[in-house]
Specification:
mainly alpha
Amino acid sequence: MTETFISRLSYVLRQRGLYAALLLWIMLCAAAFMLGPSMPKLEGAPGMQRMSIGSSIYLVLVILGIGIASLLARHRPFPDLGQRAPDRSTALREIVGLWVYVAVVLVAGQFIGRHFFGAGIALHLNGSLMGATRVQSPTEVFTWAAYNGFFLALVPYVVFRLRGYSNAALSLTSSNLKNDILIIVVILALGCTLDLWGGRGILELTPRQQLLGGALSFVVHLFGTDLPIMIFIYAILMLRYAKLASPMTAYLLGAVSYPASHIFEPWTQYGSVAQGVSSVMLVFITFFPAGIMKSFLTVRTGNAWVHLWAYHAISPHVTIDTRLIVNDFNIK
C-alpha cells in the first residue's frame, strides 16, 4: 500500500498541469488582492481582497478533504473515464456542441429572467452563498428550478442517452457502492460541520423553518443547480476531457468548468469592462476550489452521484441556503 501511495504521489507531482494551475491560482488571487481597492464593488458580493484570502483558506480545506477521500478510496483502482467516452474526434465535437448549447441556455436565461422577473436566471439563486440583494417570489424560484433542471439536466441527459450512451457510460452508476457511500458520509459530515460551525446556517432558524425550508431548499436546488452541474459537467464533459487529455489535465478542466458555468451569477455585472473583469475574477476565485473537490470525487470514484450527495445537494444548499428559501417563501 505504501509503494502504491508513493507511486501515485510521484505521478501527480510530475504533472506540469498541476503546477500551471497552481501558478494561475496564485496569480489570480494576487491580482485580486492588489487590484481589489481600485475595482468596482459588485452588489451582493464580498470585496475581492476578502474573497481572495477566504478562498485560498478554503482551498487548503478542500485539499485536506481530498486527502481524506483519497485515504478512504485507497484500496480501489482509479477508473479509466476515457474508456467511457467515444473516439477523440467525436468527443471533441460533443464537448464543443455541449458548451455552445450551455452558453445559449445561460444567455437565454438572462433575457427570460429579466423579462419576467427583473433579474436573469443563473445557476444559483440571488443570495445563494452570497448576500441577497432582493427577495424572490416563489414563482421565480420554481421557474428557476424548472428552467435549469429541464434545459441543463434533462435535455442533455436524454440527448446523450438517445445517442447510445448508457448510465454507466455517463458515470451515473457505482462500481463500489459501499465505498461510495462511505466517502459521501464522511465528506458530507465534514462539510456540514464547517457550514454549521458556531450555530450558523440552518441552525439559526426555528424547527418549523428548518423542516419546511430545508425540504424545499433541497428540492429546488436539486433541480436548479445540483442535477444540471452533475449531468453536463461531471457525467458528460468530464469523460470527454479524459479522452482528449492526460488524467491531470482532464481533472483540472473538470474543475475549471465549474466556475466557467457560473459567469452569470446574480451578483455579476457586465455593464463596463471593469465590472466584467471583477465579475470573472470573483467567479473563478469563488467557485474554483469547489470545482477542485467535485472534479476529484468524480475522477476518483467514477461515479458522478458522489459529488452531488457529498458536496452539493445538502452542503451547502440545505445547511446554508435554507435561510434564503425561508426568506423568499416567507416561512414563519
